Amino acid sequence: MAEGTTQGMAAALGPLLQGLFDQPVAARTLLDRIPLPLALVSAERRVMFLNQAACALTAMSPERAQNLPCRYVFRCSLCTGGCPLDVVDKSPTAAVAPVAREADIVNADRARIPVRVTCGALTAPDGSRVGYFETLEDLRLFRPAEARPEWPQGFGDMLGHSPEMERVFRLLPGIAQTDSSVLVTGETGTGKDLLAEALHNASTRAKGPFVKVNCGALPESLLESELFGHQKGAFTGASENKPGRFRLAHNGTLFLTEVGDLPLPLQVKLLTFLDDKIIHPLGSTRGVHVDVRIMAATHRDLRRMVREGRFREDLLYRLNVVRFHLPPLRERGDDIALFLAHYLKVYAGMFGKRLTGVSPAAERVLLRHAYPGNVRELRNIVEYCVNVCQETHVDLPHLPRYLLEESGEPDAAEGGGVATVGQRVGTGAQAPRGGGVAGADSGAAGAGLSGRSRHPGHPVQGGPPGSSGSLGSPDQGVPFAGVPQGDATWAEAERRLIMEALVQARGRRGEAAMALGWARTTLWRKMRQYGLDQ
Question: To 10 degrees, what angle do helices 360-368 and 335-351 make?
Fold first, then answer.
């Protein structure tokens, strides 16, 4: 079925029953009058039609739902495993009886609703399968109020209503009440630090300290003292006793971020602590008992590191008692729109801007971006947009240039109207305080690139006037800042910067593009232009 308006869908459905009455019965009229929520789904599992009852249940219009994957429309707890459509698919014949399951869905208003999902095959006249139908019975209508489950629609300061994140949120309250070790994995910027702090704040240790240590930020010689402490005179410069982070976290939580960067000798000491809860400060002959819950996080593949001999297998087993994996933002459906709406409100209020929304053209670019830096990159992009926007809505000229180059949208294009925040971008639902991911800025640090931005969510700074933050055109012949007049044109300086970025990235073009603040396609085009693609 082709994309289109509600009228287009109705026309596509066409007459359904003929010969029973004087006139044929229109399919849309029949389906909309059915009081049970009903969806028609294509063989590719994209929603082709929602009747009025389904629109009311999902809080989603037919236009918005059409052609979206059904998992993004219903956000069903079965989408991550046990989908009844899988059972229908495995049947050797399309005439299999409908399959029913009880589950929860999350509607567009982020309300969790218990339902009974019934799925079956739609067949062509020759009996071949062309799609599916799905009905959803609202079980709240059949359960007493006191028996209805209350599920969290977020956790702490975290946001998200995709099936993947709802599954995480459902597990967190119970895990928070234990002292088991927790390992959080996921790409940079997905919110691992935020999850650990939310677990601590919901636990019985919430009144105790939450101490965070970045295992990759300090050299081994300093990291051991930082973690375990030292006695006065333990080494040159140890002029006084130092308690160490373990003792500072007593009766609380110690969060080891980037635990994959922990040197092997310190992995042994950490394993010893996990076994007997005793630490041995440098220079001390006596152990110290510490009551600490250990949480750890990493973006690395620890199992591969174990195979390579860079991480202890026994330590992995001790840390991996409870494991949470945070999916990248690109796999979280319309959570992107939720975060865009949330951060627009946050930064508009912070900077005193009267922003009413995002233009459809800018929204299209923002929703299509892959966000390799995940929520942290999205937050930085929105902060940049709010900073530079002097109008009532964010439009294409307010977006970082690398997003426009990546999408092919002209930066001077008209937005074509304004969508209010929460109407097109996001759901307008009230977000938990501070939602999303907080933390340091993301992206590769363009070390050695004079005047370059370290934020992949921001265009490169330091270009010539009128460049809007880009590196400019090599045809301009503008002298590069910091290079004597006549010694180098802007084109020559740009070529040198590309070479420096490639050297620092060891030839990895993706990392070089990120350091320069460009899309990969922009870097490849300029490399060909300057003869650097060989």
Answer: 120
Between CA 440 and CA 380 the distance in angstroms is: 10
Largest Cα–Cα distance in the chain? 101
| Single-letter amino acid, residue 522 | T
Token pair belonging to 214: 């970045």
| C-beta of residue 297 within 8 angstroms of C-beta of residue 196 | yes
The per-residue pLDDT for 426 is: 41
Rounded Cα distance between 247 and 252, Å, is 10
Averaged pLDDT, groups of 10, the chain, 534 residues long: 40 62 78 88 91 86 86 84 83 72 80 86 84 88 52 65 84 90 94 92 91 86 81 66 85 93 91 88 80 95 94 94 93 86 90 88 90 92 92 91 77 43 43 36 34 36 34 35 43 77 79 76 81 74
Q: Would you say 279 and 229 are in contact if contact means Cβ atoms under 8 Å apart? A: yes
What is the rounded CA–CA span in Å between residue 324 and residue 327? 10
How many residues does this entry show for the chain?
534
User: Going by C-beta distance under 8 Å and a sequence separation of 6 or more, which residues neighbour residue 210?
Assistant: 197, 200, 201, 249, 252, 253, 255
User: Residue 152 in 3-state DSSP?
Assistant: coil
Which domains, and CATH codes, for the chain? 6-147 (3.30.450.20), 163-325 (3.40.50.300), 331-420 (1.10.8.60), 470-534 (1.10.10)
> What distances in angstroms separate CA 191 from CA 18, 44, 426, one per listed residue?
56, 31, 19
How far is Cα 355 from Cα 352, in angstroms, rounded to an integer? 9
Q: How far is it, in rounded angstroms, from Cα 250 to Cα 235? A: 25
For residue 220, what pLDDT is reported? 78
* Residue-level pLDDT at 180: 93
Residues 6+ apart with CB under 8 A from 282: 224, 225, 228, 229, 230, 231, 234, 235, 238
Cβ–Cβ under 8 Å, residues 357 and 423: yes
pLDDT the model gives residue 222: 82
Both structure tokens of 519? 């899309």
DSSP secondary-structure letter at 408? T
Closest to 136 in 3D by CA, of 104, 96, 97: 104
- HEC readout, 507-524: CCHHHHHHHHCCCHHHHH
66-91 per-position pLDDT tens digit? 888 888 888 888 887 788 888 888 77
Token pair for residue 438? Answer: 């907080």
Q: What pLDDT is attached to residue 312?
A: 95
Residue bearing tokens 């971006």 = 369
User: CA angle, 349 as apex, 334 and 386 as ends, to 5°?
Assistant: 65
pTM for the predicted model, two decimal places: 0.53
